[in-house]
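note to self: the first set is below, dont mix up w the second
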Amino acid sequence: MSSIVEKMSAALDTRAATVNEWTARYRGESQFVLLTQEQRDALKNRLSSLSINYGALAVDLLNERLRLIGFTIDGTPDLNLWERWADVGMLDGAQQVQRDALATGQGFVSVWADEDGEPIALPESASQCIVKRDPVSRRVVVGFKRWQADGYGHAALYLPDQIQILKSQSHVPEGGYTAPNGWQTTSTIPNPLGRVPLLDVTNLGSVQDVYGVSELEGLRDLTDALQKVMVDAMLSSHETGTARRWATGLGTIQTDEDGAAEDPWADGTATVQHESPDAKFGQFSPADLAGFDTLAGLIVRQIGALSGLSPQMLGLHADSAMSADAIRAAEASLVAKAEARQRTFGRAWAQVAALLLAIRDGGDPKRFKVMPVWSDPATRSEAQAADAAVKLRQAGILSTQGTLERLGMSPREIAQEQQRAAADMAMQVASGQVSP
């Protein structure tokens, strides 16, 4: 068993480097700035870094369209499961896990029971967790979480039949390196679920992308290029922000003790006087910065093409009014990407929900046919959506529940609305307004 712990710990170290890199980029902590020492001196080191964080914008706007609103079991909404989901904080937790998956390639959730035996689901950090899958079935066979506390390394090894809690034998300083070996088991907890209760939510790329793919990967070079352009623009603005003056016919050029020519305007004076009739003074034309705007706009449009973000989301043509149909057309690529992620992440959330049900009701998680319910990722006109839903209801194509679903209501909202409708009907019957 120690060999499994050592292998998982070493694999986590390898994976953590990539996770930390993508996390830093998502937070805008990239230090990519092409400044020469002369430029730094000219700026007096006032510009140490510059982050153009379109990557975080792409992740956040995509994640906003991945909103869970309920679960169904065998096609029937389970409101108790959804209430438990909300009680344990997974309304926000699911968004956090999905954000990690989009930014770093993977997010994690652990499922277990609290001290009262109630099922809980907890978001886990992608820098602390890793799972191993069976190469044939692709099923998770081992889960591993490692963290530091009280001057030691701590870990949990998740297996289908048990969970082992481990502690490092050697002292580990805060933020220090935890060696992959030298672990001792402090306790073992039976796992009656028959499945590893640590699940990964993976942003799938190609079949070979075992750890998923970051949404930032395709935008990395473009954001670096845009950052370079903006740095150049700021340097040019700094150099031309103050008028550049010239003077001729002043006679002998004054120099300092090192032999360097003295600037007649170095003391900040706005004018210079000279007795020579040949002396002339003037000012250079300011630099044209329009070229930077053109180049930056070209790069931003390429970022939009890869990320699926519309020009309005990227700050292009923000002042132009658009119709609802034009907005939907501009967002078609982002909506298609969101729908694909719903299918990908939906499988993971179904597994999490099945484990919660197995803890709540007992039995094998495989017997629960769970499906997540998502909100519509498209930007909709409420009036148009309502008109279309009512027409389909009047034509007999949709039921009342189907009409409410088409309007984007969650299973819980639909149940509440049906209860209100039944109460209204009962009041009308009691008052004699309608026949029973």
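second set (the one i keep forgetting abt)
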Amino acid sequence: MLALIALPIGAIWGAFLAKKRGGNRLDMLQYAAGFAIAFFLLTVVLSIAFARYLEL
């Protein structure tokens, strides 16, 4: 569930960062996609690790 929340947060942050650095629309799209994927994967890994930790 948290991973689905991380997708738009990562996309928004990536697009904002690209715009802040003076990028055009394609740069914003690339940053948004990269950050969304990174946030999604990080959240999935942390969720799995946390779930396994609680079961011990």
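remember for set 2: The helical segments are 2-20, 25-55.
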